[in-house]
Plastid zeaxanthin epoxidase (Madagascaria erythrocladioides), 470 residues
Amino acid sequence: MLAFATQPLLGRPKSLSTGQSSCPRRRQTVVASLKVAVAGGGLGGLAVAGALLQKGFDVRVYEQASSYKPFGGPIQVQSNALALLQDINESLTRAISADGTATGNRKSGIKDGLSDAWYCQFDTGAPAKKRNLPLTHVIDRPKLQEALAKFVISQSPRAIRTSSRVVGYCNHADHVDVLLENGTTESADVLVGADGIWSSVRAQMHGEDARSSASYSGYHCFTATCKYVSEDVDEISYKIYLGKKQYFVASDVGQGRVQWYAFLGRPAGSETQGEKLGFLSSKFDGWSPEVQEILNATEEGEVEARDLYDRAPFVRKGWIDERVVLLGDAAHPMMPNLGQGGCMAFEDAYTLASSLGELGSNASRDQVHQALERYQRKRFGRTAIVQGLAQMSSNLLFHYERLATGGVQAFLGWGVFWSTIGSVIVGGSMPLVLDFLYVNLVDATEQRTSDIPESPTKAWATVKASSRQN
Ligand SMILES: Cc1cc2nc3c(=O)[nH]c(=O)nc-3n(C[C@H](O)[C@H](O)[C@H](O)COP(=O)(O)OP(=O)(O)OC[C@H]3O[C@@H](n4cnc5c(N)ncnc54)[C@H](O)[C@@H]3O)c2cc1C
């Protein structure tokens, strides 16, 4: 496999706009396999690198961070994504499942935050099992990242280059130059922009400023993981508590821990004065005892807070500029409500590797472009729908009181509204959403068997008992 050549940039182009006119010409040497440069070594970047290496591509990942540090709490890898990771590599998926905790083997549900009454419960395991998909797991983000990075490095030890920020690119007829912040340039046959929601690659592709290319959703999110085992952990893995213009989500993440999110409507950039936990305790005062117990069980230093950004699908601008293509959050940033942002990045990775995998090593510019278009065609509609569903569910959960104070509410009263019609809408739509997510797996292997172990299924009761003793 050929290594990437690093050369000082012989005069940076005046403009980083798309097209070839301002780009310095460099001759591409003949290569044994197509070279793919990936901007961004996050979930999507590492997954596509691993999948492409499996197919014999020469891959280099450029990650701006100087090293992979433990960062971020647990993340759901849902059945649709786990199934495609399994198609990419069985051992990788087993490693993820072994490091994670199955949540798809129990129910999820929505409660009223104040009264603690159930609106509805739904089963994420049954639609997955029906299609022989592995069950949804949660796994700590650093562990997931580590499993993906190991998978990449095991195939190509020098594939990941840290401290390498991509600042632009130049398309040429026979290659693309990748411009790095340190002033060097690398050449490749294809550049994948997997550099997240504030993507520099997308900014150049769409001729916009990276920092203004996503819009504030109106929601601010606090999150942490704490030692806590819910009374009903054997039956319910994931709960949403609804309130007035705010809601709270709690998920079992294994080893006697709960990961929680508190979503509040706040202006962008709002600062929290004093302790975050004190602020949240007052915001959720009078809510379900479980919400208060979870907040009480959390260490102040564990709480992270961030504004949430998303964007409507790039219907006019698309994801492709000649030899450059977008993937993951760079292509379709979305609200975290459905826990599908990373899952969609994994689906992208699988599909892009499949499309490029159809090319020969001497593929022409047109063939490369057609492969990228095949990928975009397969992914655009599905990701746009998931972006829309995530935005809709976010609005529905947040504005439920507004719905409830409409004409129907005047007739029924809001508690009655939500315990009847509201629960029918949400409870009835969730199986449809899951059907959509789990049934439309692009190019997925027909003969899949769901033999990824549900890990660790070992007695929550034991965890519960020991956690109560501590
Ligand atoms: C609160 C919250 C909870 C979530 N929960 C879930 C969940 O449960 N399940 C789920 O599937 N998704 C979840 N998501 C969404 C998920 O985190 C993202 O969709 C996912 O990380 C996208 O992967 P990515 O590779 O596209 O981008 P990222 O993971 O953001 O990776 C981008 C990478 O590119 C690097 N980078 C950026 N710019 C450059 C540059 N110019 N040059 C080089 N490198 C660069 C960054 O350092 C980073 O490593 C959640 C999101 C939030 C905010």
